[in-house]
Amino acid sequence: MTSYELRVLEELVAINTDSTRKCGYEECASVIAGKMKEIGLKVDVYDPVDIVGDGKRRPNVVGTLDIGAEETLGLVTHYDVVPPGEGWHRDPFRLTVEGGRAYGRGAADDKSAIAACLGALSKTKESGKYNVKLIASPDEEVGGRWGIGYVLGEVALKLDCGVVVDAMPDMVCIGASGIIQGEIRVRGVQGHAGYPHRADNPIPKLAAIIKDFEAFIRQRESKLSKIDAPPGSPKNKVWGRFSFTMLGSGEKENVIPPKAWARFDMRVLPDEPIAEARSELAEYFRKKQEQLGIDAELKLLHEDTGFLTPPESPFVQRFRRATASVFGKPLPLGASLGGDDGKFLASRGIPVVSYGAIAEDTRFHGTDEFVYLKDLFNLRDVISELIK
Ligand SMILES: [Zn+2]
Hints:
Blueprint: H1 4-13, H2 25-38, E1 42-46, H3 49-52, E2 60-65, E3 71-78, E4 96-98, E5 101-103, H4 111-124, E6 130-137, H5 148-152, E7 161-164, E8 172-176, E9 178-187, E10 191-192, H6 202-221, E11 224-228, E12 237-239, E13 241-249, E14 255-256, E15 259-268, H7 274-292, E16 296-304, E17 307-308, H8 314-327, E18 333-336, H9 342-346, E19 352-354, E20 370-372, H10 373-387
Parallel strand pairs: 3-6, 3-7, 7-19, 8-18
Antiparallel strand pairs: 1-2, 2-6, 4-5, 5-20, 8-17, 9-15, 9-16, 10-14, 11-12, 13-15
Helix pairs in contact: 1-4, 4-10, 6-7, 8-10
Zinc ion (ZN) binds near residues 140 and 166.
């Protein structure tokens, strides 16, 4: 292996940092801290071990380059990975370079980002536009509360702008959808299946509500953001989405159950107030319940606001110019369809974009995950252009 970035990536992939087991965290963090020191960054480690209280170590490594600039740029990455799963054709914890790709768990998501950022900082540390804080966190794959959430929350690290280096290479992501998750519950009367006339079965009623929600799904799908969807999406603009994702009822074949439930996940436009979407859902549900005459309840379980960094903001413009110097023309701006850790920065008023080397077909979270070498090096170059 020749390049600096691939040598770093090889070392990082070799350490299994499975976020479900939280193994390898300390080892990986210390390798990253060592690399940071080698290229002249000042290293701080923040571990929430005393707050979390489960005795597990979660070192957040922050490497600082202070050139006395006015603004501090945060480069947000994570070193934890999802479990390898079954069916790999290669060793998930040994980086294998083949045909322009490097395979391994985390090769794309998100160890490529750490390697590319270290590469960029090792080259451009002499002169720059920003002070830089390279943040490598654990626990991103399990929500980020004790990773970047802790670094920006309890540690209160100060940033003026940020890049979440954990995204795709063909678009600059400036927003993400809000999320509303909840449950629809239908009550019935339990009874013997031989005597259905003495019971009240909630299952067909729930099925009727689910069927009726097709109209709501279409209503939401017709709502379009002003922001573009990622390349390859079925619509040009980010659109409203609603999916039933879990379903449950009953314990035994011969018992009519007393209740039935379905859970859902609704994705709100990045530029849509989440309260409006919430009332639209509640209103639709109320009407349907009335129309169908079903005793049902809508319960909201979880909500996450989306975010949108204005496309015209100076930081977004600067980032686009960095992509233009690498690719010959600026990359398109868009919003992610899934989650995005930009929310941790955006919710604190920090302008943020997400960008990375995780191309759509790289099987991140799947088997035989890989990163395209060209995406790894382009990412390094975009970061270099941004900070120089
Ligand atoms: Zn990731």
